[in-house]
Structure formats: C-alpha cells, structure tokens
Amino acid sequence: xxxxxxxxxxxxxxxxxxxCMASPCEVLIECETQAEAQVLCDLAQREAQxxxxxxxxYRDDNIVHRINAGTGEPLRVDPETARLLDFAHHCYQxxxxxFDITSGILxxxxxxxxxxxxxxxxxxxxxxxxxGWQHIRWRDPELEVPAGMEIDxxxxxxxxxxxxxxxxxxxxxxASFLVxxxxxxxxxxxxxxxxxWMTGIENPRxxxxxxAVIQLRQGALATSGDVFKYIQHxxxxxxxxxxxxxxxxNPDSPLSVTVAAPTCTEAGIxxxxxx
Length: 275
What we know:
28% helix
C-alpha cells in the first residue's frame, strides 16, 4: 500500500508525500531517523486510504454504496459511520438546513469539468425532491434513506481524515508533526524550538502562490473555495458549493474562506458554511 509514498528530508523535518482523496497529501514530522518517519508516514497513508475506501461515493464496495443503493429499508451502520451521521445531523441543524449531505445528488445536473455549461432549470428541479436531510430517518444505529435519495460525506471526509490521522500519529510518536491534506491541515504542537509551523494560504486569484502565511502552533486550518471547481458563464462565476434549497450556487460568494479551529472537521464545516 506504500508504493506511492515518498519520504524525504528538509532540514530537521521528514516529509512523507502521497495522493489520496484526489488531493496531494503530506505529513511533516520532526523525528530523528528516516526509519521512524517511514513507519509514521505509512501509518498516515494507510489511515487516509482506509477512510477514502470506506466513505467514498465513487466505490461500490463500501457503506456509502450500500446506503445509496437501498430501497428505503432500515440499515444498521457501524459506530464510525454513526458518528459521521451524527455530525452531519448537527451541521444540518447548526446551518439552518444549508449543510445537507443529501445534496450531493445535484452533481447529476452540475458538472464542473472543462467545458461544462450551466444546467437547465428543469434538470435541477427534477433532482430537488430527492434533496433534504429532513426526509432521512436516523436513529442510531439504524438509518432509513428513501429510495432515490443519496448521502455524500464529501463535504467533511477530507477534514475527518486529517483528524483521524492526527489522533493516530499522536498515539504513536512524541515528535511534533503537521498533517496537510490538500491544504486542510492540523498541527500537533509547536516545533521543538518553540516556533510555529508556517502554513501558506493559497491565493485564489493566482493558484500556486500564497496570499498569506499563518503561524500555526496547534490546532487546525481548513479552506473552502471555488478556485478549481467553477463555471464561468459570461461575466458570472458559478462555484461548486450548491444551495440545497435552490440547487444553485449562492451568488457573490467569496473565492475562498479559511478558518482556524481546534479540529480540522470543525474548521472545514465552518469554512464551507461561510462560503
């Protein structure tokens, strides 16, 4: 499983790099030896891949597929899936129903790849009846999803992976480290000399450049934005974060929002709601 993992040294840090969840992932560890760094980075990669395999909507062999392929009958879920469903329910309530993990089905109308065009209103209208967490019956450990509806953990999956990797590494090493999955990151604590991790915030108008640098000693940062996923139609820009009530992107959203919070999952949901 570690064939795509590389571990290199930069100053006092060992940096493990791999790809997962369609994102570049890296773990920076202030440990002594490459052997120790290799073991820790391999643990991080395996955990990230486990989460992707379990919760990706693109697979046909996981719990999300079983839920989405159902016909409305009750389905018992495992404790980890239950925790994510509880969190999704909490976010739905906190956001006045705007954060809705059933809204992923709108991707059938909206395609944000190269050459994509604005969908027809009739295509969006045909999907809206299948959107709405209020139609889901969730009583831990049983979930009932009406036939034709789907759930999608994509809005919290990468940030959740950062947090689980963070916890796993904390149980297996005492060195300082930073987990960074596609720009969503979490620091275990300051570096050995007491200095902060220097984390760049990508410039939404010039991808690849940093618009700001944040000194992160502990906790997490997450960024939501439409830098790469949008449709330009005339002088209007349509971002990929959709309003589950209307089926359309919210007008005049910022290009990106970065939030600091104790955990990456919290930072991620708040940055998405801010968008």
